[in-house]
Every structure is written in structure tokens, then in C-alpha cells.
Amino acid sequence: MRALLVVVLAATPALAQTYYERTPAELPQTLDRNTPLIVVSPKPGAVHWGTNNWQHVTDTPLEGPGPDGNYRAKLGPFTGSHELDMALHNADGSWDSNGGRNYVAALADNVPVRRRPITIGQGPYLGKVGNVDYWEDLLDWELADCRGVSSPDNAKPFGDGDDFSRTILAFYSRHENGNLYLRVDLLDLGLGAETRGAVVLGFLMDWGAPNGQTSLPEFA
Asked: What pTM was estimated for this model as a whole?
């Protein structure tokens, strides 16, 4: 018999962070106008930017490189503005203007702030220690993304050698730019447990609709 682990996902308020740190391509659709933005670029140069359809245009130098080899420029806050417009003017004279469309983000109040977007796979490069390269690993997830934690000793045992693979320690979610990201931390996921059917994750999602389903389907 396969064990089905059910995680309940409900809407939960996010805790505000103090700044964004994104490449232009990683900008969310809407930024909090009262929060600074650190623009990240692999090339030196400047951020050419303005607000409200290219008003108050400014060039902010990209400083660096940092330990990760990237360059950064701090913009904002953007008090009183409703749109951020930007492009990168590289030191070699070339431009990154999003294919001529520029990079545009709406600005509003009380927008959830996330420093980094969720990365599937290898994260941003951190640097080298002792000739070993290191990348961010799960550091894009934040405390505000955690929806719940659980004791490691409350899972129902099946005695098949995979009980630790089914023990959930924490569950996370983030909804950003039209994508829903989910993460589950298990106590000790055995090699191949998820492919041989020893552990299956199921999700119940509550979006606040009055007529939403409140139970698992019969075949689950």
C-alpha cells in the first residue's frame, strides 16, 4: 500500500523583507514602492532608469564585482511613483533593454517583498572557498514562505523501511509572477523512495472560494 501525505495549503500573510535583489529579468510584476531594489548584472556598466513612463531618468553605476562576480546598483525607494522603467547600459557600450521593450514593473503600496525569486536547481553563485565553488542552495526561500512545521515523531509508521521518508518537517509555498512554488522538507528521504511509490505527496489548496472542495477525492 502506498502512503499518501496530505499537505493543506491556505492563504497566509507574508512577512515584509527589507529589499529586493534581482536581475532585470527576475523583476516581479509589481514592486513595493517604499522598498529599495538592488539590480544585479553580470556585466559592469550602469542602470538607466526612470519612473512613470521614463520620467526623472537617472543612470546609477553598477558597482563590483562582488564575490559572485556580479555587479550591483541600488535604486529607490520610489515614493509617489506608480511604474519603474529600466534598461542596462553595459560598459562596452551595448544595451540590455529586454529586446527593445525595456524592463517595466508596476509600483504600489503594501506589496509582499521577496529578496530573491525561487530558483529550481542550482542557485546564484556565492564564491569559492578552498578551491571549491559554492552556490545558493534553498536560500531563496524565506521565513515568510513557511506555512507550518511538524514534529519528526508524529508520522504514522508502516514498518517498510521508508517511514523517515514520509515524515514531513516543514512546508513552504510562494505565489509570484503567476507561478505557485511549493517545497516540502522530509526527515530523511530514502534513495528512490519517491520513484518506487513509497512516498506520494498530495496537496489540498484553499484559495478562499466559498464553494471549494473540502475533502480528498475518493480515489486518493
From this structure: 0.68
